[in-house]
Write a structure and sequence with these properties.
By secondary structure, this protein is an alpha+beta fold. The chain has twelve helices and twelve strands. Helix 1 packs antiparallel against helix 11, helix 6 crosses helix 7 and helix 6 crosses helix 9. The structure holds 2-acetamido-2-deoxy-beta-D-glucopyranose (2 copies). One of its GO terms (molecular function) is calcium ion binding.
């Protein structure tokens, strides 16, 4: 009994608060399966890495040469062959650019929960300038940065873009996403408000990237943009663009870039002070020994802090498993088991209360026999076993056994007849604080008080 008392004390100190702890889902045969088994939002084994969520992301990653990129006029649907950059004077002296059949370069990187796509398009000059300057090509950078979402379905949320050479990066506040569709297409619509000359204009973009095969060795991309009139709500197309892309190795990417920069007349340094702008010179030297493209083509990369605003790795998932729910089968098993356990215990007490003398005699005789034979009949329940036993009797799980709970179990079992007086004796003998119910501590004390032999022979 000494050993048991030590175990009991430890138990009372350590285990009491656990009594009301919530059940876990997915305990085989006991609680209902976890939602994670059917709903990927809850699945902790799926991370936020794009490539783990959808195979399309691995296919899309890589370096691409844009074989041909064409901008179309919104109204006529014609290719734009004569385009004047906003940087040019109005007199037309610097000529125009052809925005049909342009070359370009793309670096798509998928790193864990982040996706960044960077692109250069190079518009060739039409040689229609009136000034005696050999005009360079126009380089048009565009970066877009995305993070995974909590959805874990491969959807990417737009963190922000650089269109043109930017001097600052601003994370977008709108919830714009692109998502893989059918294993071969990236599809997205975006909507955001841009301040154009002091007026807030809503811009909507529809875009797709379609891959011709599993590795996306060849793809087409398409983009349409609309503006929404803030007063009338009318939508106007501002044009659309198509491109054909081919995936290449790094060496070919740099070699082709060098070739295109040379052919279209992009100088290393500005030709004249008037053309001293990143739009009219090489952004870097692709013919260098170990060429290195800028980290972000449009100039400004998001900071780590920017990334973390949307990166789910740094957020708290809204998807939390609700507490476990017992299966129907388990509830049936528990009630039968708890009746038997309770019956065994209360039968002992019943006998001790009503047939106290007989029990005492029996105890004395058993004790003598055990002593004479040098037997130890010490049996200890582990704290966990005892707690489990208590919980299985506590039908309403309030942490206390009521007289009604005790009565109900004994009656249901129907193996002994107990009068109200018997219950009075029983409860009086175990309810130490006299509040009419049996707490876990009282239950433990009661169990510890039952002679070991009774545990064996009567239970
Ligand atoms: C963002 O949009 C997606 C797709 O429409 C939606 O499932 C998600 O709940 C949205 N997230 C937020 C934070 O609004
Ligand atoms: C493509 O982008 C990744 C990520 O920024 C970078 O590590 C890699 O060097 C880039 N590739 C080239 C050829 O510039």
């Amino acid at each position: 009994m000494k050993g048991f008392s030590v175990a009991l004390t430890t138990l009372l100190l350590a285990h009491s608060p656990i009594l009301s702890s919530a059940l876990k889902c997915g305990i085989k045969g006991i609680t209902e399966p976890c939602l994670a088994d059917t709903d990927p939002h809850y699945d902790e084994s799926i991370g936020y890495a794009f490539k783990d969520q959808d195979a399309f992301w691995a296919a899309l990653e890589g370096l691409y040469v844009i074989e041909s990129a064409t901008e179309y006029d919104a109204l006529t649907g014609e290719k734009i062959t004569s385009f004047t950059p906003g940087l040019f004077p109005d007199d037309g002296s610097l000529g125009t650019y052809d925005r049909s059949n342009n070359k370009g370069f793309v670096n798509n990187t998928v790193a864990g929960s982040r996706f960044y796509t960077r692109e250069y398009r190079i518009a060739t000059h039409n040689s229609d300038q009136s000034v005696p300057i050999p005009m360079p090509a126009l380089i048009l950078p565009a970066d877009a940065f995305y993070t995974s979402t909590f959805e874990k379905d491969g959807t990417a949320r737009l963190l922000g873009t650089n269109a043109g050479f930017q001097t600052a990066f601003t994370a977008k506040t709108e919830n714009n996403t692109v998502a893989p569709v059918s294993g071969n297409t990236l599809l997205g619509t975006e909507k955001f408000v841009a301040n154009v000359d002091g007026v807030d204009i809503t811009i909507e973009t529809y875009q797709t990237v379609y891959c011709f095969d599993e590795t996306c060795s060849k793809s087409n991309s398409y983009r349409e943009t609309y503006t929404i009139n803030p007063v009338t709500g009318a939508k106007d197309s501002t044009g659309f663009s198509k491109a054909t892309l081919r995936k290449v190795e790094e060496q070919e990417w740099f070699e082709t870039m060098n070739q295109v920069f040379t052919e279209t007349n992009l100088p290393d340094t500005a030709l004249t002070p008037a053309l001293d702008s990143p739009y009219f010179k090489k952004p870097f030297d692709p013919a260098a020994t170990n060429p290195k493209a800028p980290e972000c083509f449009g100039g400004v990369c998001p900071s780590e802090e920017d990334w973390r605003t949307y990166d789910p790795e740094y957020g708290t998932s809204p998807y939390v498993e609700p507490p476990g729910v017992l299966t129907g089968g388990f509830i049936a098993i528990v009630s039968v088991a708890s009746i038997l356990i309770a019956l065994a215990i209360f039968y002992v007490v019943y006998k001790r209360g009503v047939e106290r003398r007989e029990a005492r005699l029996k105890e004395a005789v058993m004790g003598s026999i055990a002593k004479q034979m040098g037997m130890t009949t010490n049996r200890e329940l582990s704290p966990d076993e005892l707690e489990e036993m208590f919980n299985s009797i506590d039908a309403d799980r309030n942490g206390n056994l009521s007289r009604e709970e005790i009565k109900e179990l004994v009656t249901k079992a129907g193996m002994v007849e107990m009068s109200e007086r018997d219950y009075d004796i029983l409860i009086a003998s175990i309810d130490l604080d006299g509040n009419g119910t049996l707490s876990f501590a009282e239950f433990c004390a009661f169990y510890a008080s039952i002679p070991v032999q009774d545990n064996f022979n009567d239970a």
